[in-house]
Amino acid sequence: MSRSKILLLGWMVLMVSTVGAFGVPGKEPAPEIKRSVFGKMPNGQTIDLYTLTNRNGMKVTITNYGGRVVSLYVPDRHGKLDDVVLGFDDLKGYLGNNPYFGAIIGRYANRIAKGEFTLDGVTYHLPINDGPNSLHGGPQGFDRQVWKPRELPGAHPALELTYLSKDGEEGYPGNLSVKVVYTLEEDNALRIDYMATTDKDTVINFTNHSYFNLAGQGNGDILKQVMMINADKFTPIDATLIPTGKLESVEGTPFDFRKPTVIGARINDDNQQLKYAHGYDDNWVLNRHGSGLSLAARASDPEFGRVLEVLTTEPGVQFYTGNFLDGTIHGKGGKVYGYRCAFTLETQHFPDSPNHPNFPSTELKPGQEYHQVTVFKFSTEK
Ligand code: GLA
Question: Which of 82, 97, 348, 350 has the smallest C-beta neighbourhood within 10 Å, fewest atoms?
């Protein structure tokens, strides 16, 4: 072989190995999912942390403890990545007291009045854990369970989490098989598919309880961030935050977010609804067309230019402004989580639906396949 052929061959071998190790020169690394150890449960069981990355700079970490979104790195208008959700650096933080940071909520997201509902003539009693009511599936809800993880690698890396909620768990009837799939899309969207089947009539309502701060977690309050909620109506609440059953127009109230409005603009208004919740903590009745994904809300941060759009198949969204955060929790990187330092957009069926026949039904029967989808899509604006 001539000297030039040997050189050419050598160069080709070098290129193939370089491309193999680092991807095509000039392109971002391929999307991937990686597993690491997040910590141990009190019984010694190891809990995992999964890191999903895409080609456009978005990175999400999710643990199979409570199916919690632990961190969510998205670029600002200058391409600088920051983590925009509250949470903890290790499992220990999540095992301690915390208000559902990043968790999958079930069996019933939001409140059921006095922890009671009647189905097929039987009255069920649920644990009371929020004043006189039952909140977010009870003290041992889905947020406190260990889910079975399965990696789904590919162009859109995904994590499948499954959990069998046994008949009678936290007071709810039926063996409920639940599957949640988190998928990181190329367009900086985190898609969440919720699926379930039951062997007895039951009621269900799932959501994800991520706390967002588009300026970065622990970086001040969210009062200057801007919110749009695609809803003409909301479900007003009583003093214990249970819906009265009415659907009321948002027109002329601090609940009108049909035009993008600064979150803090009316949050301290002299309004009984706001006073009950110490800020926003209400369910909006989404304007929907058809049964597919439709835009529920759009939030933006004028300082950093990050935008979050929430799309969902659900009929409602709970917009909560972190009114119960009080600086006692120290989260990731030692950040102090103070009053109103994050908001949630919990897509859902309406709170307390089993006690309001006029609300969309939350019943699931044997043979039916429950499937709801929510997408958190990030982008930037000038
Ligand atoms: C939901 C509720 C709030 C509060 C938080 C957790 O958003 O609607 O009232 O309980 O969860 O603190």
Answer: 97
pLDDT tens per residue across span 178-210: 999 999 999 999 999 999 999 999 999 999 999
Measured from the CA of 111, which atom of ligand 1 is nearest? Answer: 8
Tell me the average pLDDT across 301-314: 98
Q: How far apart are the first and last CA of the chain?
A: 59
User: pLDDT tens, 233-243?
Assistant: 999 999 999 99
Does any ligand 1 atom lie closer than 6 A to the CB of residue 344?
Answer: yes
Q: What angle do CA 98, 338, 330 make, to 5 degrees?
A: 50
Which of the listed residues 317, 320, 328 should we mutate to test ligand 1's pocket, taking the one with most ligand atoms within 8 A of CB? 320
Averaged pLDDT for residues 91-118: 98
| Ligand 1 touching residue 318 (CB < 6 A) | yes
pLDDT over 50 at 84, yes or no: yes
- Tell me whether residue 209 is one of the annotated catalytic residues: yes
Q: What pLDDT is stored for residue 104 in this prediction?
A: 98
SS (H, E, C) 183-250: EECCCCEEEEEEEEEECCCEECECEEECCECCCCCCCCCCCCCEEEECEEEEECECCCCCECCCCEEC
**Minimum-distance ligand 1 atom for the alpha carbon of 344:** 7
User: Which pLDDT belongs to residue 20?
Assistant: 36
pLDDT of res. 270: 98
Which residue among 136, 169, 170, 209 is the active-site one?
209
What residues does 116 pair with on adjacent strands? 125
In this structure, the strands spanning 261-262 and 281-286 are unpaired
Is pTM beyond 0.85? Reply is: yes
Q: Among the residues of the chain, which ranges form H helices?
A: 3-22, 91-95, 272-277
Say yes or no: CB of residue 320 within 6 Å of ligand 1: yes
